[in-house]
Amino acid sequence: MGLMSANAAAASSAARQIKVMVVDDSVVIRGLIGRWINEDPDLLLVNSHRNGRLAVEDIAKSKPDIVILDIEMPDMDGLTALPLLLKTYPATKVIMASTLTRRNAEISLKALSLGAADYVPKPESNSQITTSTDFRRELLNKVKGLGGMPQRPAPGAGGFRASRPAGATAPQPAPRPGAMRAETATAAGGARPVAAAAAAARGAGGIALRSFGSARPRALLIGSSTGGPQALEKLLGEIGPQMSGVPILITQHMPVTFTAILADHLARASGSPSAEAQHGEVVKAGQIYVAPGGKHMVLAKQAGQVVVQLNDEPPVNFCKPAVDPFFESAAKVYGAASLGVILTGMGHDGAAGAQHIVDAGGSIIAQDEASSVVWGMPGAAAQAGVCAAVLPLAQIGSKVTRIFRGERQ
């Protein structure tokens, strides 16, 4: 009986493992990432391949939950393989892996539009990859987050901090098909729990929603991560023409090089001027400002004007740029006239900063679980009780424009 129980437990543990395929033309990288995966009890390496063609031929047999896909490979590169992998086995999620060149950054963002779930920048050389603890942590966290590993217990109310000790943050679960959507709070109703079915779908006791602030916002502040580039293009494509009277400031978790290209994409999507924020520049209405990779973007007042300040302080929540210091600084500058939006993303960055915004009288909208690639960041804010609305991505744009028109919520 004891042996049967042990075998059943082992089978159950194996069933919960996230199955991973690695596709890279470097035997060193395949071996290294494969070893990292095999050393993690939550992960299982099902196969590795040296090019996209072999991966496409094998994916229906291996059935990986996650594919880590290199961009530059002989015979069939990553961008060519991506749609074929998703067509052959739609259940998989693909993480693009590339070095930090502008060309690879462009390809990675294009890959997101073709269905890739996320990307991870690789260090320049094999020796750097071997010694990079940051790359290992980021890669494995993204695999687990996209693979739907259960999150660790959340802290109690008020327990979110701008920075946690190493190891205290965990990837959040990926959305489940059919997850219920949160209802919004009315101005008259104030804070009230989400429908019971929605709470049950998340295994939570309900999400309390606040009333929207009474002040008309003077800036739109957005934080996002995994799935963010696609969500930002959709959102700004919808609201861009209607937001010429206010600035839009964005912190998206992205490395150097990627953020400049993201800003270009957002300019095309929105029809509004968009660029990486510059240190000391005055914030102007009608402009989209994207926090540059590798720098924190915060706001300050100088001579009566709001200005951007970039700093090189340590990462917050393992992120740089991070949403928490951005939101906190915006609350000091705009006060009750702050409207923050937290889009899809892994982790909990933004929840502590959102608390500063609501403490100043401003409002927070979070993307709902069903429309998020990963309901980590917006879920953390929702569970912290700082949101006035938790909405599908398709409804956030109209809500935002109504708020900026001064319509009663």
Automatic annotation (TrEMBL):
Catalytic activity: [protein]-L-glutamate 5-O-methyl ester + H2O = L-glutamyl-[protein] + methanol + H(+); L-glutaminyl-[protein] + H2O = L-glutamyl-[protein] + NH4(+)
Region (Disordered): 145-186
Family annotation (PANTHER family): PROTEIN-GLUTAMATE METHYLESTERASE/PROTEIN-GLUTAMINE GLUTAMINASE, PROTEIN-GLUTAMATE METHYLESTERASE_PROTEIN-GLUTAMINE GLUTAMINASE 1
Name of the featured protein: Protein-glutamate methylesterase/protein-glutamine glutaminase
4-aspartylphosphate modified-residue sites: D70
SMART domains tied to this protein: REC
Annotated InterPro entries: CheB-like, CheB_C, CheY-like_superfamily, Sig_transdc_resp-reg_Me-estase, Sig_transdc_resp-reg_receiver
GO CC entries: cytoplasm
Stored Pfam families: CheB_methylest (PF01339), Response_reg (PF00072)
Keywords: Chemotaxis, Cytoplasm, Hydrolase, Phosphoprotein
Ranges where the Response regulatory domain occurs: 19-137
Compartments reported by the entry: Cytoplasm
Active-site residues, record numbering mapped to chain: S225, H253, D349
GO molecular function, one term: protein-glutamine glutaminase activity
